[in-house]
Amino acid sequence: MTPPPRRAARMTSSSASVLVVGGGVVGRACALALQRDGWQVALLDPDAGGVASSWGNAGHIATEQVQPLASLATLRSAPRRWHAFGGPLDLREPLHRLPWVMRYLRACVPSRFDAGRTALRGLLADALPAWRRLAQSINAPELLHEQGHWVCWESASGARRGEAAWRGADIGTTTLSALGDARRATLQSHLAAPIAGGIAFDGTAQIADLPALAQRLGAAFAQAGGIQRSLRVQSLRREGRRVHAIADDGTRLDADLVLVCAGVRSGALMDALGVRAPLVAERGYHLHWAAHDWPALPPVVFEDRSMILTRFAGGLRAAGFVEYAGIDTPPDLRKWARLREHVEQLGIPVRGEPVPWFGARPTLPDYLPALGRSECFDNLAYAFGHQHLGLTLAAISGELLADLCAGRPGAVASAAFDLGRFA
Ligand SMILES: Cc1cc2nc3c(=O)[nH]c(=O)nc-3n(C[C@H](O)[C@H](O)[C@H](O)COP(=O)(O)OP(=O)(O)OC[C@H]3O[C@@H](n4cnc5c(N)ncnc54)[C@H](O)[C@@H]3O)c2cc1C
User: Fold this and answer.
1) Domain ranges (residues) in the chain
2) With 50 as the cut, is the pLDDT of residue 2 above it?
3) In this predicted structure, what is the pLDDT of residue 80?
4) Taking Cα atoms as reference points, which of 222, 186, 203, 172 lies closest to residue 35?
5) Alpha-carbon dihedral of residues 315, 320, 326, 330, nearest 10 degrees?
6) Considering only CA atoms, which residue is closest to atom 41 of ligand 1?
7) CATH of 80-106+146-205+279-363, one of 2.40.10.10, 3.40.190.10, 3.20.20.140, 3.30.9.10
8) Is residue 369 in contact with ligand 1, taking CB distance under 6 Å?
């Protein structure tokens, strides 16, 4: 049984030790923030090849996505977005996902949706400023492209409906305007399919090179004195009110603080401690072309096709799909075929064979992240469950966790992100 909750003792950060489990973008941002805050941090992750979702995503700093996807509007749109009818949404092995779906349905109730939106709005309002601070501090301001993003439609009716929906939505600190003739003409000149309309967002951004970001975060962490170990944590164990880690080789690892940032695999780690974190793997797919003739535009969302196209330093990436499936369920090859069809039908100028990738968004039923310190264990903290917004929220998550772990009042209200909501 989990020990009874009481307010966990806050410790000072002077040279106390931290194990950060998971070195995706959230783990790296947290590890760096804690190390710079005076903790002695060890970052544990076996992913040498950079295959995590943190490095396979669409690179979009999506500060406009203030409305949690646990909503009646998302539910209503589900049938027309279903994969069997050509849409991006797929629920594989539905019976296994049933408990999560039931929690999701409860989170869609308007009062809970409104509370979630308020919480997410607060976090997203500081997400881009936090990225500016982080990018500056790792000497990589050039990796953050603040050029907004575009959304476009291929039919006039789709454009009317889509634009009206965005204009009626809460888009936080961002703004939107019509794409305008000049920008539309530029876009059209690189496509075969006609574009009927579009909008441009301001106040969103892009990470220009995800492998470079991983490298720069790692280098800054090492320079600050942090230690990276290529190691998988097999399990977390408890002794009274304290937690320790067991590595794959059976070694016991103790620390003053254990911070779980293992993306979608955080659920199983927390489960072993009796802490409920109902994560689902919400998987997405991409195709990445090293060679292409796509111009230096901001990320473009082809909303009729639920596909985002991002030009990175290392190539052009088309990403999409929302597939609820087991973490280790084999990929569905039809999704890559569908992405390729979209790219061909649109006439996007790519050359050669693309590299296929799929990965999981770590998603909790209310589509809010889990950020906080355990009430039940004195040395347990967590930062995971960032769903579609892990890249967007990584920098602010690092700042918030550093504040929480030092017992400082944070700049952003964090109560809504406490895992206690699932207890
Ligand atoms: C197709 C697609 C497109 C996306 N586009 C965007 C986007 O444009 N913008 C955006 O903000 N978000 C986007 N996302 C979501 C984003 O990628 C995720 O929210 C983000 O990757 C979550 O980061 P993370 O660090 O929590 O988890 P991950 O990236 O999954 O990293 C977790 C890390 O933990 C490690 N780990 C796991 N278990 C253990 C263990 N037991 N011991 C040690 N280490 C462990 C893994 O090796 C991994 O490196 C997209 C996702 C997908 C799939």
Assistant:
1) 80-106+146-205+279-363
2) no
3) 87
4) 222
5) -60
6) 233
7) 3.30.9.10
8) no
In the chain, what percentage of residues exceed pLDDT 90? 90
The number of residues making up the chain comes to: 423
pLDDT of residue 191: 98
- Give the residue, by CA position, lying nearest to ligand 1 atom 29: 54
48-91 pLDDT, tens digit each: 878 999 999 999 999 999 999 999 999 998 888 898 888 899 99
Atom of ligand 1 nearest to the CA of 264: 30
Answer whether residue 324 shows pLDDT above 70. Answer: yes
Report how far ligand 1's centroid is from the alpha carbon of 406 (Å): 25
For every residue of 292-336, DSSP letters joined together read E---SPPPEEEGGGTEEEEEETTEEEEEEEEEEE-TTSPP-HHHH
Ligand 1 binding pocket includes 58 (Cβ within 6 Å)? yes
Nearest CA to ligand 1 atom 35: 22
Confirm or reject: Cβ of 317 under 6 Å from ligand 1: no
pLDDT tens figures, 326-355: 999 999 999 999 999 999 999 999 999 999
| Helices 210-223 + 25-36 axis angle, to 10 | 20
State how far the alpha carbon of 40 is from the alpha carbons of 226, 228, 229, 251, 408, in Å: 7, 11, 14, 19, 18
Instruction: Please check whether residue 308 is in contact with residue 300, taking contact to mean a CB–CB distance below 8 angstroms.
Output: yes
386 lines ligand 1 (CB under 6 A): yes
Task: Kindly report the average pLDDT of the chain as a whole number.
Answer: 95
